[in-house]
Structure formats: C-alpha cells, structure tokens
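A further point concerns the way the authors explain their paired sequence and structure data. Since the whole study asks how a given chain folds, the encoding of that fold should be made plain. A single example would do more here than another paragraph of explanation. An entry of this sort, consisting of the sequence and the corresponding backbone structure tokens, reads as follows:

_____
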Amino acid sequence: MRRRSAAVIYGVLLALRVLLAAQPAYIHPDEFLQMPEIAAGDLLSLDVMRTWEFVTAQPIRSILPIYVFSGPPLLLLRLLRDYIGIPLSATNLFMATRGFTALLSLLVDYNVYCALRRSNKGAAGLRPTMFLLASSYCLCVFHTRSFANTYASVVLAICFNFLSDIEARKTDKVSWSRYKTIVMLGGLLAFGCFVHISFAMFALPIGITAILLIGFSDTPWLILGGLCTATLAITSDYLYYGKPVLTILNNLRYNSSTSNLALHGTHPRYLHLLVSMPTLFGPLLFLAIGQLWTTIKNRRNQTHTSLLGRCAAASVFCGLGFLSLAPHQEPRFMVPALSPLAIASWRWHRVAPRYFWWLWAIFNLILAIAYGVVHQAGVLPTTIHISKTSVFPSPICHPIQQPSPDVFCKQQQQQKDALESTTNWTEANVTTNVFFYASFPMPRHLLTQPKLRTTDHGFSRVRVTDLVMMSDIEVRNKLDAQPLVQCSSISDNLSLVFTQTGNSFYERSLLAVPATADLSRIKPSGSLTLIPVFTYSPHVNFDHIAELLQNPISRSSFYLYLMCQR
C-alpha cells in the first residue's frame, strides 16, 4: 500500500474517532463522576456530585491525575470565560472534556508505533497494526471517554514506548538520555498507579523487564523516578483532603474486601476472560490467542520474538489474571490491555487472512454504534436542555392568569427587562425539581450551576433526584409530593412555567425517563399529568433490552416530562 493511500485511510479513521467522541452516548456514570465532575467543582466552582470515593473518611481517589487529565480543558474554558467573555455552557463543557480525551487517545497510536518501529527498520510493516488500532472501537469509543481506566491505558502505552527505548539503548551504559528515560519510566509507573489501581497489574511486567534491561546497578534511577512522582501525588492529596492520606493503600484495602465489592455487584471470576476481553477486542483477541499457541508449539524456533513483545504478552496475562481474582468485574477494567495486545500480536497483523479484517470491521462497526452512538444517549442532551432552560441568574416572573398561582419566568438581561420588572414583572427565586428514573444519573457539572448563588436578586436552581434505588411505592410517593403547575397554564413556553410555593418562591417538577420504562408503575393516581417537553432519539438502555425489542422504534427514545395537574 502506498504511503499516500495509507495516510488517507488513517485520516478517515481519525475523523471517525472525532465523530464518535462528539456523540452523547454515555457508557457508565464513572465516565464523569471520577474525573471531570470533581475537576469542574474545584476549578470552575460548579455545583457537582461528589461520590463516596472522595468524601469518605479514607478517600481512595488521588486528586493529581484528575487535575492532570481533566484540568487543562476546564482551565481553558475558565480563561475564555474570565478574559474573553465566552460564557460557560453545558455544550462547551461536554465538548472540551471529550475533545481533550480524544486528543490524548492519539498517544496510544503514537507510542505503540514508536515502540514497534524501534524493532523494525521500515514503517510499512506497521501499517496493518496502526489501521487495526485506529479502527478499534475500544480506542475510538472507550478511549475518548473520561474513564480513569482510559487514562491508565494511555499511561501504559507511553510506558511501553519508554521500555522499548531502554531496550534499544541496553548497550549504551553511560548516557544522560538513557538515565532520563529510566527516571521518566519510573515516574510514569508510579503515576499510573495513582490514576487507577488496576494499572499496577498491567504494568508489573514492564517494571520487571526494565530492571532486567538496566541491571540492578541502575535500578535506583527507576526507583528515584517513582519516588518523586509518588511524593508529588501524596503531597497533592494531603493538601487537597487536608490530612495525610494514602489513596492507593485505601483503594487497595477497599477493593480487597469482598463485602465492599458486593455493594457494586458481584460477578463470576471468569467474566473478564469470557465476556470482557471478547467484548472489547473481538477478533484481535482470538488472533493473539492463535499467535500464542503457535509460539508455544514452535518455541524452540522463536528467535525473533523481542523482549518488548514478550513483556506485552505478560502484561495482558498479568492484568487479566489479577483482575479476575476480584468478584466485581466490568469490561472497562480491561481497556488498558489494548496496547499490549497490539504490540504482542503485531507480526500477525501483516499476514492475517482477509476474512479476519472483514470480521474486525463488522465487529467494531456494531460495537461502535452500540456503545458510541445509542447507549444511554438521551441523558446528556436532556441535561444540556435542562441547563439552558433552568439555570440562569436574576430570574423575573409574572403571573400567567388569575386565580392560577402559576407564573412565567425568564432571565433579566436587558435594560428593558429591568423596566418591566418595576411593573408586572417581579424578581423571584426559581427552583426546578428533576427526577431521573430508570436511567444513568445526570452529570451535575453539565448543568453549569454555580456552587454559591446570591439570593439578593433571586436565583434559578436545579434540584436533582435519582430514583434508581427506590421502590415503586417510594417513587410514587416522591412524585406525588411535588409542587405541580396547572396544565391549563402551559402554552408554547412549556418549560418556563412555575407554580408559587411561597413569597417570591416558585417551583416546577420534571421527570426524565426512557421510553422503555413502565410509567404505570410509578405514576401516582389522581390528577398528575405528564407532558413531554424534550425528546431525544436514539436512546438505548441495554439493561432493558427485552422491553426495547418489543417495539424498537417507539422505545428507543428518552423523554423529559413536565409534571402538571388537571
């Protein structure tokens, strides 16, 4: 294949990655809760949801990786807001975080390429491997989402690149660049452990291989890099949490308890082997298994296998083995296995049969659409809609009709509005109650709701309640107790009608729910009516696939209802 044709194909695959990164598909709540949610609260002073991992007496998440990976795009938005006047919006927050993570995913491509090229004189033989990586939905979808596992995978790929550099310089005993690489590798190995505890399981063979390559005499340089990074991370956690804390030790202690893991769901020990790995890597996994079997059969003749390749294979086995010991298993835990799988099996990519590439294309196309386009895809657009219509400063309201207690509210922006407020408009305190049922939770930071709001001139806030852990009776009672607007008050401005709950205090209630949910189970008896104000499609929840298959067209949507009374 000519270089220009290869560049065109790779460019198209990169464009698809960017397109998938811009999709609102929502893989798992930890995509937001473990990284950008915390950074947005700290750096942009937004109202966010801090999970138990950060507020427990023994925190298990280090703050340094959060600021490293989620800080840059948020700080950029902050600078644009404070110095140029570009307002902070939910769309900007979403696109900045996704865009930066997608940019970081290119480090996987680059470092795998550099690591392999050192053991190969020409780049042409690596093109199948680079096409395979760039077309992997694991890279295009999971690596463009802000999981801690994603960033651990990026760090792991960089470590393999540094290891290959050390292997290439193993005869160069006295070199400043060699020592610098060793120190940096030690720092990255330590940093990856603070990113996610599972990183250590994939990186263990890298550390052992590095020691074998550099010898015990130079091992202190490796340890020095690790100690410097660990000191920085521990100091950052001390300053952040206000007390001495070892997040890695707390994380390891917590995840070593089966009773703790049972709170998050227990799975059979073979789930990673039989489900997670095939789901993430598909044909690539079976190609690697075939290569491994051939290598074992012909091990006496395998003189060409590099130390880097053997280390990559050991990384996959080590990560899979250790993570399979835990009873709580999710596919994203195995995401870091992508780069070592590609490195370990790269020689077979050039000789893979045509049907392998057809299977690879079909597999990744299906999974990219499933996880990158439609999975829980209505939650984020609904969140953005709520942010646009419910979070604004200095709301002013005026009565719709008498004797209805309902009012129409808007933001006081212009001088004309200020004049109107002296007549039939009044400053008010406005609250929107949002209830999420049978779906992933709303990322709070995307509401762009400030932590501190002054009540001197009124405020507009959103109060979010997740109903996922409640029984049907509890949900009905919760909804029945909410203040409701009059259905007769609703006109074209559906989402801006509020009902009075006190002197200058007004509220409304919204229900966000997928089309697969059975509303008859939770809807209170009486005059409560649900009027749709926002709809997004396609939205697919794989936890309710049976309900979806009953009518795939009508049940692949996500609705936001305004609750009113007749």
Summary: Residues 426 and 433 are 21 Å apart (CA to CA). The beta strands are 395-399, 406-411, 426-427, 429-436, 459-466, 485-486, 497-502, 505-514, 528-536, 558-565. The first strand starts at residue 395 and ends at 399. The chain has 24 helices and ten strands.
